[in-house]
Amino acid sequence: MHLESFLAKSRIIDLKSADFEEALGELIGMIPDSLLGGVSRHEIQKDLAERENSMSTYLGNCVCLPHIKLENLSRKYVFLVGRCSQGLRLNGKEQYSNARLVFLILARADEPSYLKVLSSLAGIFSDDETMARLLAPVAIRQFQDRMLEAFAGTDGVRDKARRLNKVFLSQAEKIAKDSGCTAIVVLGDTFTNGIRLANYFKGMRIVLVSERRTDADLDDFDEIVSVHSYSRIRMGQLKSAILVGITKGILSETDKVCCIGGIRGSDVIDSIMVFNVGAEFSQFYLKNTEALPAGVKADVVERVIDIATELAVEGREGKPVGSLFVVGDAEKLRPYLKQLVLNPFFGYKPEERNVLSPFMDETVKEFSLIDGAFVIDGSGTLEAAGALIHTPDFNLKLPGGLGARHAAAYSISLAADCLAFVVSSSTGQLSLFRKGQMLVLSEPRA
Ligand SMILES: Nc1ncnc2c1ncn2[C@@H]1O[C@H](COP(=O)(O)OP(=O)(O)OP(=O)(O)O)[C@@H](O)[C@H]1O
């Protein structure tokens, strides 16, 4: 049975009162009238408190499991969860001072699965690993995620996925050790509710790569790299993540990483890949000190990769678009730039035209339709759009098939200390040019 369908984040709270009966009142107060079928909350609270006094529902393991059947409950079950970090009081009974969770169950009176559900719940709360995770002193949002995660394993399919993930994780640990990996990279968007790694990869650096900037599960990771995972195959996301990792000093050319992940949102690990950062980026510069041009913030690079990836995958208004982003010191780039059209960013305050502002995405995507390049300074300020790059002639060493946009990116990357990102309109490929070297960050469109 899918027990998680009876649990909602909004019904998982921190209790204000340490008095058992009042705590029940807080939980019952969260149930909408429409679910109760006319029974008064006060009656339910009184009934539950009386039963608790005559027969305790304290399970041990810090959990109380009060439960009641209601004639007209409009669902099979309603679950409510209260966390009580200081324990509870109930008529001086000692055991309640150990309680940290109250899990209240309302069940429809005619529900035949009642005993089975109670025993499944008792099973979940007797699992030490689950309880260690639920009792950790984390923020309420994280606790809500962990609670849902604990219940996500209550149907056969997810149980199977969990078992399989355990096999993958222990194999990945072995492979990582045997092949001398220095870090583990986890593609976090594989998992809808995070992944627990506390029992794996002891003593290894664990890096989470995720599109979402999430607070959940951070304690299992040493570092977080945020990149969009729009890329159709995982290699693209991984390469962008490793590049951002290098710019942030999280990874370096000497690292060998073991990557684990699966299809986005599947909750199933399906691949383990060992990735030698130095070899993979071999034609490219690698040293952390050279990865970023002087004065360019790693956050700005991360953001430009996000916007460029979105453009590469989604295009604009259903049509593929190309784009060129040059990131570096605007003064040093100026000799090589000429406006093709009036600069649309002219006259705006720097803080109103910074790529780090979440509101700039749409503006940048809209202006991507203009011919020419975007020029972005190291702190993220958009200096220009529609800029034509003209540089002294360089010997072009570009792969065949690449045209004027790529040539412009190549030449400016040689002329000035900058990064030039190109989204190809014809292939959708995202490439980075640095000091005349080209690094493909995402694969061409299928
Ligand atoms: N020197 C330049 N400076 C800035 N932008 C340029 C420059 N040359 C070309 N572009 C931009 O690149 C666009 C496409 O040029 P072209 O098709 O030759 O390049 P490409 O490298 O093949 O790129 P794509 O794969 O997107 O077609 C132009 O319309 C223009 O917007």
UniProtKB/TrEMBL annotation:
Keyword Nucleotide-binding: yes
Signal peptide feature range: none
HAMAP family associated with the record: DacZ
Domain DAC residue range list: 282-444
Record domain PTS EIIA type-2: where: 4-150
Name of the featured protein: Diadenylate cyclase
Superkingdom of source: Bacteria
InterPro entries cross-referenced by the UniProt entry: DAC_DacZ, DacZ_P, DisA, DNA_integrity_DisA_N_sf, DNA_integrity_scan_DisA_N, PTrfase/Anion_transptr, PTS_EIIA_type-2_dom
Organism (species): Intestinicryptomonas porci
Keywords: ATP-binding, Nucleotide-binding, Nucleotidyltransferase, Transferase
Residues spanning the membrane: none
